[in-house]
């Protein structure tokens, strides 16, 4: 059995992602995203599953930055899940009359429900937790707290909390993409359950210096080869204000000609190019209940 580390505890969205991809493997809950990446890098687990991007809030910066700057490992798969955020109360509180003073959740979950909170609880104090699951676990241990949490239905049932209001995320099409990483040689995991939606190659491109038309030249290396890009994002290199690199997702696996050709062209322009992964992408409804 493989060991799959994920942002825990039980009841997180990342657990759903890990379970959708690896229902038969040993799932290992870890407290924070850096802890998951550290353990994968040290080969204490076979695979790491961590969130990377949300449809409402954008990139999960901690994942990307920690991966790139501290624990570089190849991406070997990704999965996108529907994300339904619910407002959960302790069973000790009356759903009709309780007015919580505090809401506890993961920053991404709070951000996805920002307008809901503004409208319904404008005075509420916000407390950030390591994950939605850890917020739910905390409320289960402190059932008399004047607090509520934002988490999913799986967390509600795992921790015996009541769904005071379902689907409180501000935009309907709320999805998060999770990536699978490994520091072990064997690479691509064997995945059968979720729907295979396509393939990606993710590149990290650092420009030699800031010159006129640099990004245009970078993009044209892909354009004339008809390589479709599904994402381009700039992130700070952390070497000084204004220094950025680009993360580029190409909509296909690494091949023998086109992608290496584009990389060679970028290198000839003076860019530094690293391949962060070439992998299959999956999609799932995330409704599976985890035992
Ligand atoms: O807190 C969780 O349940 C997580 O799995 C983390 C996370 C994230 O970091 O984006 C995953 C999916 C949702 O977007 C909200 C939170």
TrEMBL record:
GO cellular component: cytoplasm
GO biological process per UniProt: L-phenylalanine biosynthetic process
Gene3D superfamilies, per the entry: 3.30.70.260, Periplasmic binding protein-like II
Entry's EC annotation: 4.2.1.51
Domain Prephenate dehydratase: 3-183
Entry coiled-coil feature ranges: none
Pathway: Amino-acid biosynthesis; L-phenylalanine biosynthesis; phenylpyruvate from prephenate: step 1/1
Assigned keywords, A-Z: Amino-acid biosynthesis, Aromatic amino acid biosynthesis, Lyase, Phenylalanine biosynthesis
Domain of life: Bacteria
Keyword Amino-acid biosynthesis among record annotations: yes
Site (Essential for prephenate dehydratase activity): 176
Catalytic activity field: prephenate + H(+) = 3-phenylpyruvate + CO2 + H2O
Single GO term (MF): prephenate dehydratase activity
InterPro entries listed in its UniProt record: ACT-like_dom_sf, ACT_dom, Chor_mutase/pphenate_deHydtase, Preph_deHydtase, Preph_deHydtase_CS
Every ACT domain range: 203-280
Pfam family of the protein (one): PDT
Record keyword Metal-binding present: no
CDD domains cross-referenced by the UniProt entry: ACT_CM-PDT, PBP2_Sa-PDT_like
Annotated NCBIfam families: PRK11898.1
PANTHER family found in the cross-reference section: PREPHENATE DEHYDRATASE P PROTEIN, PREPHENATE DEHYDRATASE-RELATED
Name by which UniProt lists this protein: Prephenate dehydratase
Gene: pheA
């Amino acid at each position: 059995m493989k060991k799959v580390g994920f942002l825990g505890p039980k009841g997180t969205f990342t657990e759903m992602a890990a379970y959708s991809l690896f229902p038969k493997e040993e799932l290992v809950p870890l407290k924070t995203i850096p802890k998951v990446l550290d353990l994968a890098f040290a080969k204490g687990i076979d695979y790491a599953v961590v969130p990377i991007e949300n449809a409402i809030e954008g990139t999960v910066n901690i994942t990307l930055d920690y991966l790139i700057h501290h624990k570089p490992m190849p991406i070997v798969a990704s999965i996108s899940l529907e994300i339904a955020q619910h407002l959960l109360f302790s069973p000790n509180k009356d759903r009709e009359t309780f007015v919580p003073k505090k809401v506890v959740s993961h920053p991404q979950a709070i951000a996805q429900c920002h307008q809901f909170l503004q409208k319904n609880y404008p005075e509420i104090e916000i407390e950030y937790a390591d994950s939605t699951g850890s917020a739910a676990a905390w409320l289960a241990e402190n059932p008399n707290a004047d607090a509520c949490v934002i988490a999913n239905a799986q967390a509600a049932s795992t921790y015996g909390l009541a769904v005071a209001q379902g689907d409180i995320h501000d935009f309907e099409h709320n999805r998060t993409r999770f990536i699978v990483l490994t520091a072990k040689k064997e690479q691509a995991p064997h995945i059968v359950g979720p729907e295979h939606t396509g393939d990606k190659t993710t590149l990290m491109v650092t420009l030699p210096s800031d010159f006129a038309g640099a990004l245009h030249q970078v993009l044209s290396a892909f354009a004339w080869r008809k390589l479709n890009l599904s994402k381009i994002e700039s992130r700070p290199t952390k070497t000084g204000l204004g220094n950025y690199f680009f993360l580029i997702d190409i909509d296909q696996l690494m091949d023998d000609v086109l992608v290496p050709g584009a990389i060679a062209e970028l290198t000839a322009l003076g860019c530094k190019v690293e391949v962060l992964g070439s992998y299959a992408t999956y999609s799932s409804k995330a409704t599976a209940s985890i035992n």
